[in-house]
Amino acid sequence: MARELRYTDLLETNSFLRNLSDTTYWLCITRTVQESKLFPMNPYMLLSYLNSFYRLPTLLREIDSVTPAEELGDRVRESSFKVNTVNAAWGMPTFYLLGREMLLSWGLIRPQDAVEDVVDVLDFSRRFNLSYHRNDGHITNKEFGDRSQFLPERTLDAFDDQLLGVSSGDRLHTATVKLLAQLSQYAFLAHCECRIGIHNSGPYNFGDNRQLLVRDFFDLSEGDYPWLDGIAVSLPHNNLTIPIVFKDTNFRLVDDWASFEAEPSYDASNIAAVGLYTADALTDGYVPVGMDNAEVLADTMEQYRDILAEATADLWKRMATWSREQMIDAGALVYSSVGKDFAHLAGTYRQSDWLELDERAQRFKVLMNDEYARDNLAEMVGLLGLPQQKTNRYTMARYSGLNQNMISALPYSVLTDDDYAPTVGAEFAGHSSLDAKTALWTTSAGRIDIDDYNARARGFTPAVHDEKYRYLDEEWVKWNHATPLAEELYRVGRPHLPGQEAR
Question: 20's torsion region: left (phi>0), alpha (psi -120 to 50) or beta?
Fold first, then answer.
């Protein structure tokens, strides 16, 4: 049965839609072009947008019914998860909307069609963003002047206590630089030569002309991606976070693609302190890894680098055997599954939901040669040359000054005219040309099957998400910092080394 659409639903949807449209245009024209000599990136990006359009509404409604989007935002705000700025906050709703834009350009749907889907996807995304960005009070990094400061003070306070100092060229400094390089190379390849597995947030002011940048790397071992079965199996963590304090460096931009720019430019010799943590759907925030002392941490980083170097070589060998269709399918699934960790957090994850291409998206694969995909993508997100992207001739868009918008709004006429299709319906059957997943999932509870993972996730609530603490925000702490409850919040709600108490 169709739901009742309210005027406010459409106002909020179109406002957030336009925010995403403007931000995405700015990102596309100011950031570096993403290319690959191995993967057909333009074809797989377009296919991913279509898969998102057909599958996301049903999946997000199920997740939202179990764990509302704003509660997921509260959870994700406390540490690093794959659902972050580049994946869930920007990528998930934007990929969905670009799939819609493609179908509009082909004349297969009208602006009013799938209106309930659009409203639901953007409502979920907007509520998540508002909660995720609760501490800085913005809905995107662009709105905050290209800053990404979602972590609470107590977490940053713990980092300030726990990070280990380094000097340029010492063992820990060298191990950090080499591990970062290996993680970047491996995560880029594991995600079909795209940046979705890498995240950066900050900067945070650490005083004395120092700033903290938090660097995250996700899906590093056996997990959701079937092509990682048997890869990096000796790595005990699927996700790694490396908070880094830089001296004499100002990170002037950390955007919604999690890219950063610094003045002076990023220089590893300016690293002053580092740490290593992990987190997943079963951890109570960040968990320190090898943080006993500088020697133990250096040893851990060197060990992980060796594991990942071997894994990178193994993965290159595996991907070298893939057909073009397998490369397109894998890349499309990486992109269209950017919201998959919502399902892990809610305990609703099914491999077939997130790592298969809906048969409705599969229909368009025959179009996806390199030339067509390149030109279609350029027209849609760069030139904004598709007919429906034009607005009236008096309009001047935010960044281009042209009467063109990347993403088409919903018409308000649906409030009085029932000539529209409310939804694309439930997901259809899907498949891919890739080998099926057979291995277990790497988690903080060990390597477990997905039923066990879901059950553990459904039964797990981090301590700081108890109703006693959930609404004790930064403003409350400011006025109540001397109370026993504030002390208790800091004791349970920050990363801690074994035996370490909150100060």
Answer: alpha
